[in-house]
């Protein structure tokens, strides 16, 4: 491998560069004077006791959530434009089956636009290349899930819309909730440690909220514009709720401060978080800085956080507030003990 500081070749097992003296091991700083569990929970429960880092993180969560909403809106709108060009909504179909198939593909294409936009934002958020090979897998998955949920929604709508106006409104909104379920499922495949149940819940809530506005935008605007505004609103709320639920319900996470002082947060959970220059790494460390493909792995197990340094094969337990420094990048471990205790 190569030294990330001077770029000269060094031994794979080296813990320090013999050319420039750069330390190759992650620098770990553990918190001092750690309070007891009871003291920590009492302190965290007080609304006036948040640290500066917690305030910064809460502010960032809001910013990230809004960005995911905007990305969802743009992706859904682009998908709608493409889908409308492929499937004329006013076309006369000879059977109900043809309508269901057409709507299924229409919804699937909108789903692809929404999911790809969210995945691009997620990649940028973790400093990974915007486009990745996994996007093909995401597109196939969301075409299927979006198509199935869209087709099923059309069947439900076709069987209930003429009962009464109230039933028609409720039916349409719930159908978009089904569509949101499919998007939520697909997003769980590329957001680290986002449980599918929570992703489905977020997609459902976003779909219902966006579907309600979609229903009334189609009345205010002409058909094509109404669909575009409605679909964009739908994508906005799906992206918004997916990000919000993922942030609020996490038990442990890393706060990453990059060289340009930009901040990122990554949830810890059942899946190990890989740090390195591999395209499959969850947190990408630039290959041009000579970081190995797998530099370190962070694991959250039994309410404990560990880091496995793959350079010298050392394993270290991390505490709430522990800081890890790799070159110009700093990681801080955050544990929500109240949620962990409720889960026990």
Briefly say what this structure is.
The protein has 344 residues and is of the alpha+beta class. The protein has 8 helices and 10 strands.
Describe the structure.
This protein is of the alpha+beta class. It folds into two domains: 27-55 and 251-342, Sandwich (Tumour Suppressor Smad4), CATH 2.60.200; 59-248, no CATH class. Helices cover 53% and strands 14% of the residues. The chain contains eight helices and ten strands. The strands form two sheets. Strands 1-9-10-2-3 form a five-stranded antiparallel β-sheet, with helices on one face. It has a five-stranded mixed β-sheet with strand order 5-4-6-7-8, with no helix packed on it. The two termini are 43 Å apart.
